[in-house]
Amino acid sequence: MRKESLRIFCFIVACCLFLPVPRLAQENLEVGEAQVNKLLDDWLKSPIKHIINSEEEKAYKLKLKLKKRNEQLRFIEYFWRRRDPKPETPQNEFRMQFFSRVNHCEEYFKIGKKPGWDSQRGQIFIVLGPPSEMRKGVKTDTWTYYNLAGERIPQNFTIVFVDERGNNDYRIAETQYPGKDEGESYMEARAGRALSGSIPRDVLDAVTELNRLAVAQMDLKLEDVPLVPETPSTVAPSKPGPPVTASSPMDKAPFDLQQIFLQAEETRVRMVLAFIFRYEDMAFKEDGGKRTSSFKLQADLLDQNKNMVDSFKEQVAISLDPAELEEKKNAAFTVWRDLEADPGSYSIRINYEDEVKGKNTQMNAGVELPVLRTNELTISPIIPAEGISSLPPEPGESINTLELMNCSIKPNTAAVFQRDSNFCFFFQVLNPQADSQASRPRVDLNGYIFKDEKHFRDVPITADQFDPRYPDGLVAHACVPLTDFPPGEYVLVVQAKDQHGKKGTARKLIFSVVEKTT
After folding, report:
1. Pick from 392, 415, 383: nearest CA to 512
2. Is 245 in contact with 103 (CB distance < 8 Å)?
3. Which of 294, 296, 461, 494 is the Cys-Cys partner for 317 at CB 3.0 to 4.6 Å?
4. Does 227 reside within a domain?
């Protein structure tokens, strides 16, 4: 009877603390009182430390000194109830989202034996959530957030992480956002921040502001929460515990997903999706001396009433010689598609059908389409590419080619280029002021490439790809031959200045050059 009581007590602790309740219940753990006490003692050392405020931390430490476990449980339940955005529903949506993000961090951000949630990327992911745009480089991970809540948080907020030691310990090297002083170079910021491990003040301010806004029930008092009895044999948590499913639908998918937001017609937003498949992760079968693989990919964009707003269906078939497949075992290919809608909150439903394995996988996630049409001059995310053409793609080139705004683009998602190739890039300039006497805005564009903290090359850029369908934006691109580029890491800086509004902004992109492979 004593063990049964403790097992139920531990279940309640898990509901309030940081353990996935369904997993605990399924394992039917035999627990001891010492284990229950340790869970409560270590609560402030858990991922909770990323979202708790200083006053709450002091209050809980006082409960620890008093050694009254039911008081501690009461406070933890109070902590979660304060953050419940919809008290009328049977679930605490904030708590479910929190644990989902923690699970995602454990899946992707671990540093050796150090928990993923305790990394810098983990802290940012837990508080700020999944970025609107995520781009991976050789040693970099760049996250961009659009329209985060909070007046003190910059819009179009980009955080650049760098893995200096190659051990998955990505640390913040730089932040970028419109209006920020660009006098501090990227390389100086990386040397000063990534190696020291410090988090920039603007990131800490964003974390503090979002944690403040997360407290939805400001008037709730501790005494409003019932006290948990010392022997909780009949006590159940007020709301179900968090699920073990992760926040990102790509956690168990056979591909990585990147997304970029660009302006479409009027106020609409185009969400460009890059489904990145690695050949080594795919199932192939033998067919007439060839190795073949095929799959179907479908994505539906749904509004909050579950009405379909946009969708696409794609069937992909691959046929390679055995030698070709062996050469590509460490390579990847990308399926590029886009969905379009007005700014707002949506859910995206992705269905992947592997026709070789006969396996069907469905994934769902929330997505926020940002407001891009504002009064602020902005440069969209820069898309690195191996080539850009005004001609439509040739038959059979649809896999690695993105058709966008009258351009046929061959993106390079890794941003790693061989010396015998060209480094190309594509971007939009949003919200320039129009000339009252002309049919199009006028923007000065300049590009600079840096290597080892020094200016290496100027890049001429023109916005002659202006399209009247996008009256509030300019489409620009450029290509640079890499023949005389020594191998190494480079930083592209693109600057835009509105000739009428006299406003300026900048955007950076990290890319690498490697020797030609034989």
Report:
1. 415
2. yes
3. 294
4. no
Dist. CA 219–CA 209, nearest whole Å: 19
- Quickly count: other Cβ atoms within 10 Å of residue 488's Cβ: 11
In angstroms, the first-to-last Cα distance of the chain is 71
Q: Which domain holds residue 257?
A: 253-372
Among residues 295, 289, 293, 290, the alpha carbon closest in space to that of 280 is found at 293
**Secondary structure in 3-state letters for 286-342:** EECCEEEEEEEEEEEEECCCCCEEEEEEEEEEEEECHHHHHHCCCCEEEEEEEEEEC
Chain length of the chain: 518
User: Last residue of a domain, which of 350, 372, 394?
Assistant: 372
One pLDDT digit (tens) per residue for the chain, 518 residues: 444 444 444 544 544 554 433 332 222 333 345 555 677 788 888 899 999 998 999 888 887 776 677 788 888 889 999 999 888 877 788 888 888 888 888 888 989 889 999 999 999 999 998 888 888 877 888 998 887 888 778 878 899 999 888 888 999 988 888 777 554 444 444 444 444 567 888 899 999 999 999 999 989 988 888 875 544 332 333 343 333 333 333 335 678 777 888 888 777 888 888 888 888 888 899 998 999 999 999 999 998 788 999 999 988 899 999 999 988 877 888 888 889 999 888 888 999 999 998 888 888 777 778 777 777 788 888 889 988 877 665 555 557 778 776 678 888 877 889 998 999 998 888 877 765 555 556 778 889 999 988 899 999 887 654 444 444 567 888 899 999 999 999 989 998 887 765 678 888 888 999 987 65
At 27, phi and psi to the nearest 5?
-75, -15
How far out from the chain centre does Cα 117 lie? Answer: 15
Residue the block writes with tokens 């910021």? 189
What span, in angstroms and rounded, lies between the C-alpha atoms of 233 and 35?
17
- To the question of pTM greater than 0.70 for the whole model, the response is no
d(CA 44, CA 38) in angstroms, rounded, equals 11
Q: Considering Cα of 93, then 95, then 101, then 103, what sign does the dihedral take?
A: negative
Q: Are 328 and 320 a contacting pair, CB within 8 Å? A: yes
CB 341 within 8 A of CB 268: yes
Q: Do the Cβ atoms of 371 and 315 come closer than 8 Å?
A: no
For residue 270, give the nearest of 365, 350, 363, 372 by alpha carbon.
372
Q: Which helix (H) or strand (E) holds 443?
A: strand 443-451
Could you tell me if residue 359 is inside a domain? Answer: yes
Residue 92 lies in a domain: no
Give the whole-angstrom CA distance, residue 95 versus residue 110: 22
Assess whether 415 and 323 both reside in one domain.
no
Residue 148 sits in the same domain as residue 269: no
Number of separate domains in the chain: 4
How does strand 454-460 pair with strand 383-389?
A: unpaired
CB 439 within 8 A of CB 397: no
- The answer to whether residues 348 and 360 belong to one domain is yes
